[in-house]
Amino acid sequence: MKNIKxxxxxxxxxxxxxxxxxxxxxxxxxxxxxxxxxGVITLNLSGIAADSANARAAYPPGPAELAKIKYTVxxxxxxxxxxxxxxxxxxxxIKAPAGQYRVTVTAYLDGVLxxxxxxxxVIEVGKPNSATITMxxxxxxxxxxxxxxxxxxxxxxxxxxxxxxxxxxxxxxxISDSLSLDDxxxxxxxxxxxxxxxxxxxxxxxxxxxxxxxxxxxxxxPDTVKTIEAxxxxxxxxxxxxxxxxxxxSTGFDAYAxxxxxxxxxxxxxxxxxxxxxxxxxxxxxxxxxTIWTKQP
Length: 297
Known about the structure:
Blueprint: E1 2-7, E2 16-28, E3 35-46, H1 63-66, E4 69-77, E5 80-84, E6 91-97, E7 99-109, E8 112-123, E9 129-134, E10 138-141, H2 144-150, E11 163-168, H3 181-186, E12 193-199, E13 204-205, E14 216-221, E15 227-228, E16 241-244, H4 270-275, E17 282-285, E18 294-295
């Protein structure tokens, strides 16, 4: 089962939530009459914090504001499940088959997006599991043009409080142009971003695409990605988290995707760690400006 905790960070538009999962066995299949093991995830939401830079003017919230909050929870993976809470409902239970999931939580106040959080989750029948989702100010966008419009309109932030941006319907990360994500990042260097591309379908990232995007702090790559070309992440000095949802071969993962070890702008040994026997799909992190990446449990 999965215990997912949405935590509040100091001076960030944040939401605390705990996903407690319990075993639910002997669930009848719709047609075959067989039994499918399910988990029940109970979502408890509370603890919205004030932030003078990022929160709405109505905050800090009192009971009246809390009564207006609505949440949308999406689980993508072994199955796709979407749940929308009622206004003021801070507890919701979700039944899900055992397996790996990408959990996305969005919070709304008066119909306006307030915060976004995303994290990987594994639901195992009969086992307690835990993960943490940090809710931050952000957006769910449906294309490069939306990001180009959205990011410049946001206030400057810091690398320890990046925007969480879920990008859907991105079909390519090819040659840079005026609408490309790297171009938007490079023109807004004081706005730090975590990207979640799990809702996109691109298969490759062209050479040097995010090179020198020092405001890129994290990225989740969909399982459709099969090619990462040279120097894609070179000099991404604040990139400290990369999640691979799928499999990339040594041929598809360029040896210099993170630069050359002898290069001043080398971003680390992530390729080697990913291709190692203990590597593969998962989340890898490193200290800021460090070169040693570690796969997370």
